Amino acid sequence: MKYDSYLTELKTLLPTAKSILIAIPSGASIDKLASALSLFLTFEAAGKQVNIVCDDNIKVSQAHLFGVDHVQKTLSSTEGGNLTLTLEGVAASDNTVPALEKLDWYAENSNLNLVFHVLSGQTFQPARIVPRSQGSGFNLIFIIGAVNLNALGNIYLQNQNAFSGTHIVNIDTQAANTSFGQTNILDLQTASLSEVLTNLISDLGYLLDADSASNLLVGIFDSTNNLSDPKVNAESYMAIANCLKSGGKKPSLTQPQQSSYDWNALAPKDSSYVQQSPINVEPQVQSVSDLQANQPSPEERPAGEGIISETVEPEWLTPKIFKGTSLG
Predict the structure, then answer these.
(1) Which of 33, 55, 185, 272 could be a cystine partner for 153, CB 3.0 to 4.6 Å?
(2) Counting Cβ atoms within 10 Å, is residue 232 exposed (0-12), middle (13-18) or buried (19+)?
(3) Nearest 5°: phi and psi at 268?
(4) Are 136 and 81 in contact (CB under 8 A)?
(5) Residue 84 forms beta bridges with which residues?
(6) What is the pLDDT, as a whole number, of residue 290?
(7) What is the set of domains in the chain, with CATH numbers?
(8) Mean pLDDT by 10 residues, the chain (328 residues)
């Protein structure tokens, strides 16, 4: 398994993770979106509660990807997570609470009661109680193709608490990536993120379905310019084969590949050269008299060379009958 060494902690967290967020950076390519959507569809098929977000609007060129209608543009910062009640105006400048001895809590029916034990002679009166949600309520956050958290745009900038205290899985192929996750899967040698996700989904123990596999094929072909990228290697073709075995459909090539060989290099260097049609040459046939005229005279023939008689022998024209003495 290609990425198994990176996944020890993640494999422990995934079985109990019920809620997962998948985030894509602004200006995401087809490869990045296809990769993220394939992971989304895989987790959804496994019964996980999954959200997928991107700060951009979906482009027409991306609308054919499976699951694209699930991509949201906003994320609520108050959804789930740890709840903090801030009691304003009760702490001193040294971050102590002089009036407070201790704090207890107990449940009563469906209520939770907080008991603030106030020291004798002190006053404990909060100016205001402000509830705040810390964290997002997500058990895991997968970030696909972003060099850092700021690359997520408003998804991160307006919801920083949602990313605080949550295990982040950072998946990328870019050298500029800052390794900001608790789990970092950075493959700089692979030609596309979709190839990375093809292997990663398998390494996590999940099976590709036809829609996820089709998305990954679109991502691989788009990112590598129809497999012409120099990084395409045997592993790339193995990933394609795995997607096809899972029922994925190979995208149609909108731009047929052109041969890069310069056939003009075969032409003669002389610019005055003009290709001409072949010249038909009539075969020359010599008559018998011409052949006889060309025969050397007996005096000219080398000694010992056979002499061909110019007169036809009579017996040559007589039919020949061969008789045998033995029977069958």
Answers:
(1) 55
(2) buried
(3) -60, 145
(4) yes
(5) 132
(6) 56
(7) 4-79+136-190 (3.90.1640.10)
(8) 87 92 94 97 94 88 89 68 77 89 90 91 86 70 97 90 89 97 96 96 94 96 95 96 96 55 48 49 55 56 54 61 58
Round to whole Å and give the CA distance between 186 and 53.
Answer: 21
Number of residues written out for the chain: 328
pTM above 0.90, yes or no: no
The CA-based angle 155-34-159, given to 5 degrees, is: 10
Element holding 32 (H helix, E strand): helix 30-45
Apex 208 CA angle, 247 and 30, nearest 5: 85
Between the alpha carbon of residue 84 and those of residues 132, 259, 326, the distances in Å are: 5, 64, 126
Dihedral sign computed on CA atoms, order 93, 95, 101, 106: positive
Q: CB under 8 Å, gap of 24 or more: what pairs does 46-52 form?
A: 46/206, 48/17, 48/18, 48/19, 48/20, 49/18, 49/19, 49/20, 50/19, 50/20, 50/21, 50/22, 51/19, 51/20, 51/21, 51/22, 51/75, 51/138, 52/21, 52/22, 52/23, 52/24
